[in-house]
Design goal:
This protein has strands at residues 3-7, 10-12, 18-25, 33-39, 46-51, 58-60, 68-73, 78-83, 92-99, 112-113, 117-121. With 123 residues, it is mainly beta. Helices cover 0% and strands 48% of the residues. The strands form 2 sheets. Strands 2, 4, 5, 6, 9, 10 and 11 form a 7-stranded mixed β-sheet that branches. It has a 4-stranded antiparallel β-sheet with strand order 1-3-8-7, with no helix packed on it. The mean pLDDT is 95.
Length: 123
C-alpha cells in the first residue's frame, strides 16, 4: 500500500516561509495526482493545492493563490509545497494525499493519506 510521509512543518512568524515535503515509500508517485490539505482545530479539512501526475496541471485554493507553490520531483518520489508570506490563518495540520485520478481540491477524492505535519504561524 502507498505510504506518504509529510515533513517540513514548524513554527514560523507571520510573513515567513516554509517548505513542506511529501515523500512516498513502496510505490512510485508517478501514477498519482497529489493534493495538499489542511485542517485547523474545529474546522473541516480544506483543500490547499493539488498537482497532476505529470506536474503539468496545478490548482490552488483562493486563500493561498500567489503565496503557495506546489511542485513535484518524480525522480525523488517527492511532492513539495512552498509556502511564502504565511499568515496566522494558515495555522493547521497539513496533509498530503494521493489518488490515481485527477488533481482535485476535494478531499473525498483521495485514497491515500499521510499522518500530517503541524504548521503554526505566530509571532
Amino acid at each position: 500500500q502507498l505510504q506518504l510521509v509529510e515533513s517540513g512543518g514548524g513554527l514560523v512568524q507571520p510573513g515567513g516561509s516554509l517548505r513542506l515535503s511529501c515523500a512516498a515509500s513502496r510505490f512510485t508517485l508517478d501514477y498519482y495526482a497529489i493534493g495538499w490539505f489542511r485542517q485547523a482545530p474545529g474546522k473541516e479539512r480544506e483543500g490547499v493545492s493539488c498537482i497532476s501526475r505529470s506536474g503539468g496541471s496545478t490548482n490552488y485554493a483562493d486563500s493561498v493563490k500567489g503565496r503557495f507553490t506546489i511542485s513535484r520531483d518524480n525522480a525523488r518520489n517527492t511532492v513539495y509545497l512552498q509556502m511564502n508570506s504565511l499568515k496566522p490563518e494558515d495555522t493547521a495540520v497539513y496533509y498530503c494525499a494521493a489518488d490515481r485520478g485527477f488533481c482535485s481540491l476535494y478531499y473525498r477524492e483521495y485514497d491515500y493519506w499521510g499522518q500530517g505535519t503541524q504548521v503554526t504561524v505566530s509571532s
